[in-house]
Amino acid sequence: MGFQPQHQDTPGHMSRMTPVPDCGEESYKGSGKLEGKAAVITGADSGIGRAVAIAFAREGADVLIAYLNEDEDAEETARWVREAGRKAVLVAGDLASPEHCREVIDTAVSEFGRVDVLVNNAAYQMTHETIEEISDEEWDYTFDVNIGAMFRLIKAALPHMQPGSSIIGSSSINSDSPSPTLAPYAATKAAIANLSASLAQLLGKRGIRVNSVAPGAVWTPLIPSTMPDKKVEHFGDNAALGRAGQPAELAPAYVLLASDDGSYMSGSRVAVTGGRPIL
Known about the structure:
By secondary structure, this protein is an alpha/beta fold. The chain has one domain (35-272): Rossmann fold, CATH 3.40.50. It has helices spanning 47-58, 71-83, 98-112, 136-157, 183-203, 222-226, 229-233, 251-258; strands spanning 38-42, 62-67, 88-92, 117-120, 166-170, 209-215, 269-272. A seven-stranded parallel β-sheet has the order 3-2-1-4-5-6-7, sandwiched between helices. The radius of gyration is 17 Å and the shape is globular.
């Protein structure tokens, strides 16, 4: 299928994409699976993060929307959360900063009193044809945002999580089948899957579950803002289903892992890849 060529400056804005991704705004129906829970979702302004925020709110959760600087997109996510009758809290800032990671959790505790679900979804990537193009600064920043923030957010959140709480990391098909042009990103996604599996074992005795979701090709602002036009045009064509996924198609996996329906799921990695296998 593919998409028309288009480019945005990073981090990208969902409202400027053609077509605008489907985050379940008109389709997701909740059934109370997260009633009364408090969730923190990073990268919740758009894409998969927005889809998860909408789904969580319609399942009954209040949501803290952590995002970088995409204010317009974040406000739109908050509007959908509030339309579902739930509380939406917006926190802007760069998760590469350890202090900001702690601020996100401190704000959640101040607003909600606790953290029941932590979704580590924010990510940074850039496309490079050679390793020489990747600066030391970009390498470090990619790791700080994608895996360093996950570590710091979890450490900050744990004192405020009770048995039955859930931690979810956004890994990727790139964790097993890395794109050579996304080397730093792919390495962090493998680290997310590995850290999630380690923490599932460390935190099991506390009754806290840790899992990850491995998306395949999903149409989000990362794509037009970090990939060349040719790759955008054919994005998702190599999936077994012959197309890219929409963020709305990822949200049910996160709901499962956050809810009591997944009460015996920990240390799992759920593949939502359009048919491309993960090992």
